[in-house]
Amino acid sequence: MHVGNYIGLVQSSEQQLANAFAQVADHHGDEPDIYQVCQTLSGWSQQHVTDLQPLVDRYAATKNDEPDRLSQTLFKEPRSGGLALLRDLHDLYLLASEVELCWVVLLQAARGLRHQELESRCEEFDKTTKRQITWLMTRIKQAAPQTLIVAE
After folding, report:
1. Which CATH class is domain 3-150?
2. What stretches in the chain show pLDDT beneath 50?
């Protein structure tokens, strides 16, 4: 059974997402809303990491390094300016999409196993991840015209 593999993958992915939201908050804190919202969204992912621990223990999940490599590729170094913010939001969206896909896959496994606790966690955490993605898309749509059309 490979459920433990995906639990480890989603826990590592959530941790990378939490770290990335915190990093973007720090790098773009001068933007109205970015610092506060990104810190809040980071906290949501960090809470998922903590709340997953009983399932990590139950399924003997091991830490997965794939999310670390993805995060290192996307967030190589701090960026500044309007275009940098847009790119960082874009990269956060990619990380959040990875997390969302993990929840979808695990939800299907939970249903197949008839594991109610895992199923309810997946549904709950997926809703939170969808809220993160929705905010990111809204903020990207807001930033894109100004960033791409108006010269700095």
Report:
1. mainly alpha
2. none
